[in-house]
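#structure-requests
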Amino acid sequence: MSESISIKITSEKLNLQDCYDFVQDASCGGIALFVGTVRNKTQDKEVTLLDFSTYEEMAIKEIEKIATVALRKFDVYKIAIHHAQGKLNIGDIPVIISVSSPHRKAAFNACQYAIDTLKDTVPIWKKEHFADGEVWVNSTP
């Protein structure tokens, strides 16, 4: 993996500062961050928790592809993509993406590309738990 890419899939709590510190550089005038959080409602149903499952080996490979494309396509300096697995409570962070670039627009565009592509292509599945049941979301990447 490149020195410009940090990828992590973990059951540990994600750390926003780690992602920021990885991408920060004196040559970069912009850092864009996306922080996904577990919300308490979806489609007017009370969410009690989320449970993320991954095909970890393939997920890491797919995330590395996303990061590599983002570096080239958007001319960014560094990118970190960290994702949680396992059970997360309301307010917990399942995903952090941080991107640095000499200019803000490239950082914003790369960050949006990374989260949108991750949600569409990476084998990470989310189960939403409610007081009256549960449902898989995005069960096929």
